[in-house]
Amino acid sequence: MFLYSKFLKRVDIGQLSFKMSKRHLRISVVFTHEEAIKVINHLNDKHKLMVRRMYGSGIRISKLIRLRVKVLDFGLSQTVIRNGTKQALLDEGDKDRITLLPERLIEALKDQIKTIELIHKQDLYDGYGDVYLPNALSVKYQNALKELIWQYLFPSHFMSIDPRSGKKRRHHINKGTLTKQGATAY
After folding, report:
1. Which residue in 3, 99, 24, 108 sits closest to 58, CA to CA?
2. pLDDT tens-digit profile of 82-106?
3. pTM for the full model?
4. Given phi > 0 = left and psi -120 to 50 = alpha, else beta, which region is 22?
5. 74-108 burial by CB neighbour count: b if 16+ within 10 A, else e?
6. Cβ contacts of residue 154 below 8 Å, gap of 6+?
7. Which residues have CB under 8 Å from 89's CB, separation 6+?
8. DSSP string over 119-145
9. Element of type H or E holding 168
10. Which of 18, 83, 102, 144 has the least CB density, counted as fewest CB within 10 Å?
């Protein structure tokens, strides 16, 4: 009616018989706390820590897998989530945010950092050990590539060739690895 009367300037369009479309109700599927705990408890230790980290602070999986050691602040019990990617800029704007670091995860996260340190030392010994740094940080901080604080909190099990640089390095865990674990636990 609006199209005909305002744009096409046709006032006499005759009798129309139509019904307004019904909106479909979308029922979101959200686990209860008990259901979430059951799923988490069926995961292995590494994946359990990752899911507990997401569940305890509302981090999306895409942000979780890209966390680096340096973003954890155990003193203030917080994590700084960096914008980091083009998609993040589209989703959230050009801003960082701070999220909770659940107190019951602190010891497990410290243990995870010790594990990362062992992996990183072995990578350095093998002649590797540098990590991809975004936004030309590798130019600004030339030694940061090999520092523990820049390593991914949840590194991949395997080394791979970085398509940006052609270097062999350890990247973060693949998102699919965690989602497959969660699907099998459910």
Report:
1. 99
2. 765 544 444 555 678 888 898 999 9
3. 0.74
4. beta
5. eeeeebebbbeeeebeeeeeeeeeebebbeebeee
6. 46, 50, 64, 65, 67, 112, 172, 173
7. 83
8. HHHHHHHTT------STTHHHHSTTGG
9. strand 168-172
10. 18
Question: Distance (Å, rounded) from C-alpha 168 to C-alpha 132?
Answer: 10
Strands ordered across the beta sheet of 78-81: 72-73, 78-81, 97-100
Q: What domains can you pick out in the chain, each with its CATH number?
A: 30-185 (1.10.443)
Query: How many CA atoms lie less than 13 Å away from 103 in the CB half-sphere?
Result: 1
pLDDT tens-digit readout, 103-145: 999 999 999 999 999 999 999 999 998 888 887 787 888 888 8
Element at 96 (helix H, strand E): none
